[in-house]
Design a protein that fits this description.
Layout (H helix, E strand, L loop, with lengths): L1 H29 L1 H27 L2 E8 L7 H15 L13 E7 L6 E7 L3 H4 L8 E5 L10 E10 L17 H6 L10 E10 L2 H32 L1 H8 L1 H4 L18 H5 L8 E12 L4 H12 L8 E4 L2 E3 L2 E3 L6 H11 L9 E3 L32 E8 L5 E7 L5 E5 L6 H14 L3 E5 L5 H9 L8 E5 L8 E2 L13 H16 L7 H23 L11 H7 L1 H8 L4 H10 L5 H16 L1 H7 L8 H7 L2 E5 L5 H19 L12 E5 L2 H4 L6 H8 L5 E7 L7 H10 L2 E4 L4 H8 L8 H5 L5 E8 L2 E9 L3 H5 L8 H10 L4 E2 H20 L4 H11 L1
Parallel strand pairs: 14-20, 14-21, 15-18, 15-19, 16-18, 19-20
Antiparallel strand pairs: 1-3, 1-4, 2-3, 2-6, 5-7, 5-8, 6-7, 7-11, 9-10, 12-13, 17-24, 21-22, 22-23
Helix pairs in contact: 12-13, 14-15, 14-22, 15-16, 15-19, 16-17, 17-31, 20-30, 22-24, 24-25
Length: 855
């Protein structure tokens, strides 16, 4: 009874509820227009507020440029940390920042002036976080300004999004070769003069939790639905197969089924959550991503072609998921981001980095590793003209070699004169080292610079003569050729003990003695007596020459060949001692007589070998001549030195010259720095110049830079140079190059280019091909493959074959050259001239007493 009463009471209440709902529905229907307008207004107002807030947040950005060193080589952990840092930076804006504005942009930009510039654009509040990068000191982070480009005539756009199952991943791309290499290749031939521009913007935003939860739920639901549909298809198949249905309905068939299994109706397979969700399983490192591409050019068709190449470059990530462009095209008809009505949306995203990723725009940091770092050491970057200029005569440049760009065109690379301090070339004989040096030298001569080219083969001057016989150069050319043969051939002379230029006596003595010691391997341990005797002998003859010059008689100066008379002729020795002070004379009277004959013969043997060559005897045996390396430096002469060969005696002669280079260079300390004209030494066949006990080449490299001197060395085998010379050259080289050769020889150069070029790469080079690295505007560039330049193709317009005879005449005049016959006659009588000069300063009685004393 009580229950019945309760039910009667509930009925009016239910009816009242239904009546209220019906009335509400009627009111809504009656006022639907007003409600729709209010709802639309609220949505429009909310959207307007979101846009205003997004614009305000995105206007406060910081712009950073990441510049890697040539040795930049990150690992996966560093890239992960960088990615997580970018995600945190994206969400570092003010609390009121809408989610669509919580983004960070990685901009990869190429404009024909730089191969690929890597920039990060983030909320300004993230600057303290991003100025320090997990990549360490191998990446420099610089504050920069927003990008501002002029309007190009042709612009194309693309939006790349991830296509595939929600949890599928992009291909895992290895870090070597660099994942950016396809993109670098795609933009390698941009032409700045045509307004070419290509940019790829990767916008990242933290994954919203609620959005991620919805995506997971949708993915799981799709997987369950798929499993259910598969089960239904199997059930329909069983229905269409009577035999199968018979086994299903007949219990006696159950035990006869394969392996004793009962035939059952299909059931949906169990869904594995880890497999279905894939990268969506774990939220750390998961981001929303939108990739925008924009290409522009002032030339029709170039931007479209560039965009197609960039899309192809992104195929490197194609795996279970891939990056594909949104849009549709059929012949000339194309619908996409660069067509209305989608054009405005793209431009807004491009200008502000607002996040509006298309469906499927979810990725994991590991998938995008290749885009979260600048180019690494494993990347092959194109060499653009803005990084290394193209040679043009008259621009104070040195041609280095022909480089083939990404567009297939060759251009002649060049370095600036003031940047090119020291250079080392290594590789096979006949593979282009000397020719490349000759091109250098001719270019430097036409730049108004001074130089000395030491060519032991003697034929290089013939090669360059027609290009130096030019009105701007001919007056500065000087020739010191020791390869002459006939009596009428012109020869210059050089007295290594000449004191007419006023150089300090001890510097001349040290230079000559060190040259002998370096060429002959004399050291304080191995040949102390020979070093002492030679030092005292040279010191005495320099004193004689100082007196002769002081009395205005330079023509009676002693030469290096008077050392023999000084050591073996007591009368001549006594005459020479009159020019010494008391202390120096005491050594000759008290110490010298105690030396054994063998010690004296050790000093005389190399002098006898020098004198055995009539050309060398004539060149070194005259009292004063036109060869003066210090004068050549100060006047900017183009001096060509041709020694007679590379044998042991010839090496002694060249050693005298190279030590004189060092002495003359150091003597420029008496000039203000601004007046020290740059001067280059080109030394071919370094092995013949460098001896195990000599450090002169190392000293030139280490000490003469501040005195305006530069050194270019060529050798076939770097490892045959002395350790001190090799280390100094490699340490200070502005340019390094190598042609093909043995692995051992090549490794000396390629070890300076770690992770870039291997000995195997170089060993297979064809003739005239080199790998080389350069210093341009203080920055190391390369190594790059080049083709060695040739004189005719670089300076063909400067050739003056009809002026070669005039060039030789002027080159001999600049060194006061005379015929070989005349100089030979002077050299043979020079000892008598010195003896006569000394005799006038000594009484006959002293001479007689001296003969008895030293007999």
């Amino acid at each position: 009874m009580e229950a019945h009463l309760t039910a009667m009471a509930v009925l009016p209440m239910g009816a009242a509820l239904w009546d209220g709902l019906a009335a509400l529905a009627g009111w809504i229907l009656a006022n639907s227009w007003w409600l729709a307008l209010l709802t639309a207004a609220a949505l429009i107002g909310w959207e307007h507020l979101q846009r205003r807030l997004s614009a305000a947040a995105l206007s406060r950005r910081t712009y950073l440029q990441l510049e890697p060193t040539p040795a930049f080589e990150p690992d996966a952990e560093q890239i992960w940390r960088q990615g997580m840092q970018l995600v945190r930076a994206a969400g570092s804006g003010p609390w009121w920042t809408p989610r669509r504005a919580r983004s960070v942009r990685v901009r990869l930009r190429a404009d024909g002036k730089r191969p690929l510039v890597y920039r990060i654009e983030a909320p300004s509040t993230a600057h303290p976080l991003l100025k320090q990068t997990p990549y360490g000191p191998r990446v420099e982070v610089k504050q920069t300004a927003p990008v501002a480009d002029k309007q190009q005539a042709h612009v194309v756009r693309a939006v790349l999004t991830l296509h595939g199952e929600p949890g599928s991943r992009l291909r895992e791309v290895p870090l070597d070769p660099d994942p950016l290499q396809p993109l670098i290749d795609a933009v390698a031939d941009l032409n700045a003069e045509l307004g070419d521009l290509a940019e790829v913007c990767v916008d990242l935003s933290p994954a919203p939790r609620w959005h991620l939860a919805v995506r997971r739920m949708q993915a799981m639901q799709r997987a369950r639905d798929q499993a259910r549909r598969e089960a239904q298809r199997e059930a329909r198949w069983l229905t269409r197969e009577p035999a199968a249905m018979g086994r299903l309905l007949d219990p006696s068939e159950w035990h006869g089924s394969p392996r004793g299994q009962m035939v059952m109706s299909p059931r949906p397979r169990q869904v594995d959550r880890e497999v279905v969700l894939g990268k969506l399983t774990h939220s750390p490192g998961l981001v929303r991503v939108q990739i925008l591409v924009r290409c522009a050019s002032d030339a029709d068709g170039r931007a479209q072609a560039r965009l197609a190449r960039i899309k192809a470059a992104m195929d490197v990530y194609a795996g279970p998921s891939r990056l594909a462009a949104l849009g549709w095209s059929a012949g000339p008809l194309r619908l996409g981001p660069d067509r209305r009505p989608w054009l405005g949306r793209f431009d807004a995203q491009w200008a502000t980095a607002v996040m509006r990723p298309a469906r499927g725009g979810w990725a994991h940091i590991d998938e995008l590793a290749g885009l979260l770092k600048p180019p690494t050491v494993a990347a092959r970057l194109p060499l653009l003209e803005t990084e290394m200029p193209t040679y043009a005569l008259g621009q104070d440049l040195l041609p280095q070699g022909w480089y083939r760009g990404a567009d297939g065109r060759e251009r002649l690379l060049a370095t600036y004169e003031d940047d090119t301090l020291f250079e080392v070339q290594s590789g096979k004989a006949g593979w282009g080292k000397t020719m490349r040096a000759q091109v250098h030298a001719v270019a430097s001569a036409h730049n108004g610079r001074g130089l000395a080219f030491v060519d032991p083969h003697g034929d290089s001057f013939t090669d360059v003569a027609r290009y130096l016989a030019h009105e701007d150069v001919i007056d500065r050319v000087a020739l010191f050729d020791l390869t002459v043969r006939e009596d009428e051939d012109m020869l210059s002379c050089w007295n290594v003990l000449d004191m007419t230029t006023g150089q300090p006596a001890h510097e001349v003595t040290a230079s000559v003695v060190e040259a002998f010691a370096g060429a002959l391997g004399w050291e304080d341990v191995t040949a102390p007596r020979a070093l002492t005797i030679l030092t005292k002998a040279v010191e005495a003859l320099v004193a004689v020459n100082t007196q002769a010059v002081g009395e205005q008689l330079p023509e009676v100066q002693a030469t290096i060949f008077q050392v023999r008379s000084l050591l073996t002729d007591p009368t001549f020795r006594h005459l020479a001692l009159s020019a010494l002070d008391v202390e120096a004379r005491h050594w000759w009277t008290r110490s010298f007589p105690g030396f054994p004959r063998e010690a004296v013969l050790t000093v005389l043997n190399p002098l006898e070998r020098l004198g055995a060559n009539p050309v060398v005897r004539a060149a070194l045996g005259c009292p004063a001549g036109g060869y003066d390396i210090r004068r050549a430096m100060d006047e900017g002469q183009v001096l060509w030195i041709c020694p007679p060969g590379t044998g042991p005696t010839d090496r002694l002669l060249v050693s005298l010259m190279v030590h004189d280079f060092l002495r003359a260079g150091l003597s420029r300390r008496d000039l203000p720095e601004a007046k020290r004209r740059p001067f280059r030494f080109y030394l071919d066949e370094l092995i013949s110049l460098d001896q195990g006990s000599s450090t002169v080449l190392a000293e030139i490299t280490e000490q003469l830079r501040k005195f305006g001197c530069r050194l270019h060395g060529m050798t076939q085998l770097m490892h045959r140079l002395s350790p001190s010379t090799r280390s100094a050259l490699l340490q200070n080289a502005s340019c390094l190059s190598t042609t093909a050769g043995s692995a051992e020889a090549i490794a000396q150069i390629t070890s300076q280019w770690p992770g870039t070029v291997t000995p195997r790469d170089v060993a297979g080079l064809e003739r005239w091909r080199h790998y080389a690295s350069f210093t341009v505007a203080g920055k190391r560039t390369g190594p790059v493959p080049i083709r060695g330049p040739e004189l005719a193709e670089v300076f063909g317009d400067l050739a003056r074959p009809g002026q070669v005879a005039a060039l030789h005449k002027r080159a001999h005049a600049n060194t006061a050259a005379q015929s070989l016959a005349v100089l030979s006659a002077v050299a043979l009588t020079q000892e008598e001239a010195v003896r006569s000069f000394l005799t006038t300063r000594t009484t006959p009685t002293d001479v007689h007493d001296a003969g008895e004393q030293y007999a």
